[in-house]
Structure formats: structure tokens, C-alpha cells
Design goal:
The chain is mostly helical. The protein folds into two domains: 247 residues, no CATH class; 43 residues, no CATH class. The chain has 15 helices and no strands. Helix 5 packs antiparallel against helix 6, helix 7 runs antiparallel to helix 8 and helix 12 packs antiparallel against helix 13. The chain starts with 8 loop residues before the first helix and ends with a helix.
Length: 299
């Protein structure tokens, strides 16, 4: 199946009601957050207790956001978004919440565009976007001011994927570098998007079918052709992994745990988020038992 990249003006206008529905659902679910205050967990350090944020946009704040691993993180674009909020609205928690809600709406639209460019019908793409907007795992990112970084990284990550799908069809440098630039913005918002180059490879399998999975020989032959264009993406991933490690060194030293304990925690976290994904809460020990059983069968 080829991805339909020829989006006509008519089809764009047909998407307008869907965008409105995404907006209305975003507002309908999260509008109570407009009346919430800052919370005591992390919000003070990200907003009114941080002098550079409290001062609004400034050259000093710009330099600080890109040069400092404040709060054991490296996400300069997130810091700049808080400074912009203060510059425009002052230290108003309702405005901070409002920006989060608007960013979540934009994420829903970007996800809708991603699904459409993957070849889904407008109706199926709308259902996917509405589920994304309403899913309970999104509440923390939207209603908690300190989690602005998730919204920004999601938004730029989705847009980077959309541009890559366009590049795979038109093969122009403009769409390639736009995808790369948006990936950089996503990394500057939160480094959790370091896995995006792997997602590009998955898109090459489906829906683009640039990588053949019919046989091992065909797989490696087709993989060789698409890996080179991913090299800048993987280099950026490696660079921001270093930034994240440097930012987290101090935090990790304060709560040192063994490698085996860390490995068990990783497995447990995966189980926890899979539970959240399917709206099911399972006892933590049951999750670990199932994971260990799966690993024994697998290996």
C-alpha cells in the first residue's frame, strides 16, 4: 500500500470539522484546569521559584536554558515556553494550564495528520485522534504544568513523522530537513523522543513498504538503502542521550541502585504503562510474574 501524499484542497477543508471536534473534546475534558493553581510538586521549581522564568523572555534566560542542566534535565525549549507564558500572561497559573490544553489540542491534530498520512481514512484517523485526546494517560501531561515537556516533544515528534512520510514520497531535501529540524525541536523539549529514528524504520516497513520483510535477504538488502538517510537522526539521538546522562548524573548519585534492581524496575515500568494503555489496573506482583514467565519462555 502506498501512502497517499496528494492531499487536495478539498480534503483539507473536509478535515476542518474533525479538527473542531478534536478542539471541543480537548476543551470539554480539560477546561476545569483553567481554574487550578500551581501544585507543590515540581511546579514551583519550573515557574515562580526560577528567576529566569519569572523574568520572562530575555537573552540571559535564553543562554541559561541552553547551557544549564537545571533540575536534572536538559529541555531548553520547555524552559523558553514557560518564559514566553510569563512574558505574555504574567505568573498566572490559569494561563499556564490554558497553554498546556492548547498544546494538547495541537498534538491531537498532529496525530490525526500522522494517521491520515499513514493511509487511514479520515473517520478512522478521527477516532484515533479522539482516543489520543481522551486517554487517561494524557491527564498528567495536560493538567500538570511541570509536564509541558511531554506535550511539546509529542507535538514536534508527530510533525517530524508527518514530514518524513512526505519525504518518503516526494524525496525533496526540504521535507527531509524539515523532519530533521522538528526532531531537534522535539529533543530540545524532552529527550524521550530519542526513539524516533526507530519509528522511522517502522514506518519504512509499514505503510511505506520501503523495507521488505518477505525474507531475511530482502530485509537486509532493503534496510541498507534506508539506513544512511537515518544517520543524522541517530547521531542526534546519541548526542541527546549524552546530554540526558550528564543532566541525570547528580540525581542518580543521590539514589544509587544496583544494575539488577534497575533492570527489574524497567520491566515493572513497562508492565505498568501497558496496564494504563489498555485501561486496566493489574496488581504489580502479577505484572512482574507474567513478565518473568514471558522472559523464560522467550529466552
Amino acid at each position: 500500500m502506498k501512502v497517499d501524499n496528494a492531499v487536495t484542497q478539498t480534503s483539507r477543508w473536509r478535515s476542518v470539522p474533525h479538527v473542531i471536534l478534536i478542539f471541543l473534546l480537548s476543551i470539554g475534558i480539560y477546561s476545569p484546569a483553567f481554574f487550578h493553581d500551581f501544585v507543590s510538586f515540581d511546579d514551583p521549581q519550573y515557574t515562580y521559584e526560577e528567576p529566569f522564568v519569572e523574568a520572562g523572555l530575555s537573552w540571559e534566560g535564553l543562554y541559561w536554558s541552553f547551557s544549564d542542566f537545571h533540575f536534572s534535565n536538559y529541555h531548553p525549549l520547555t524552559w523558553l515556553s514557560y518564559m514566553l507564558d510569563v512574558e505574555l500572561f504574567g505568573m498566572d497559573p490559569g494561563a499556564f494550564h490554558g497553554v498546556n490544553i492548547f498544546l494538547h489540542f495541537l498534538c491531537g491534530v498532529a496525530f490525526y495528520a500522522l494517521l491520515r498520512n499513514c493511509g487511514l481514512s479520515s473517520f478512522r484517523a478521527l477516532i484515533g485522534a479522539l482516543i489520543f485526546i481522551a486517554h487517561p494517560t494524557q491527564v498528567e501531561s495536560v493538567a500538570w504544568i511541570s509536564e509541558r515537556k511531554n506535550l511539546l516533544s509529542n507535538l514536534f515528534g508527530f510533525l517530524s513523522l508527518v514530514c518524513y512520510l512526505h519525504f518518503a514520497q516526494d524525496r525533496t531535501l526540504k521535507t527531509y530537513f524539515l523532519s530533521l529540524f522538528l526532531f531537534i525541536l522535539a529533543l530540545l523539549s524532552k529527550s524521550m523522543v530519542v526513539t524516533l529514528p526507530c519509528i522511522l524504520l517502522l514506518l519504512d516497513i509499514w505503510p511505506l513498504k520501503r523495507i521488505s520483510v518477505n525474507s531475511i535477504m530482502e530485509f537486509f538488502a532493503s534496510l541498507k538503502g534506508v539506513l544512511l538517510e537515518k544517520l543524522p537522526f541517530f547521531l542526534l539521538t546519541a548526542l541527546f542521550c549524552v546530554f540526558t546522562f550528564l543532566a541525570q548524573v547528580e540525581a542518580m548519585s543521590q539514589r544509587a541502585i544496583s544494575s539488577s534492581e534497575r533492570f527489574v524496575q524497567v520491566i515493572e515500568r513497562y508492565g505498568h504503562y501497558m496496564e494504563l494503555f489498555v485501561f486496566i489496573r493489574i496488581h504489580r506482583r502479577a505484572t512482574l510474574a507474567f513478565t518473568h514467565y514471558f522472559l523464560l519462555l522467550r529466552f
